[in-house]
Amino acid sequence: MPTRSAGVLLYRVGAAGVEVLLGHMGGPYWGRKDAGGWSIPKGEHGPDEDPMDVARREFAEELGSPVPAAGFLPLGEVRASGKVITIWAAEGDLDASATRSNTFDLEWPPHSGQVRAFPEIDRAAWFGVDEARVRLAGGQVPFLDRLLAALPEGDRHAPRWTT
Fold it and tell me: CA gyration radius for the chain?
């Protein structure tokens, strides 16, 4: 059975169009990688956990703030890197510079016996959809297309919400 993960893609609509909030993956493996080094805030869950509850929890843990929205737009599932990822979109705004992530422990440098704590997300930023396509880990890019397809033409503030 594949690993399952769930998350929330926060978006906002402004004069420049649709922007999405992404987190840069923390730790030494991602430190110097920009293209492909960003992710939708998400986390793994077990078969007995509600994916929406996990998505909300992981957003709060990785960005240090609850999801600033009441409605959620289901974007479905994607299989990527041996995982099944389920994402919901939520319209809202958040100060990306104020985000504070939880941490994970990793032996670093490898085989040194030294365990260090690293943030899961070392920074967050808003990106227009075209730029987000370049920065986002490849398997998550389909969620951008699904978001755009779900937002009505001419009325990007009235998507089909679920709770």
Answer: 16
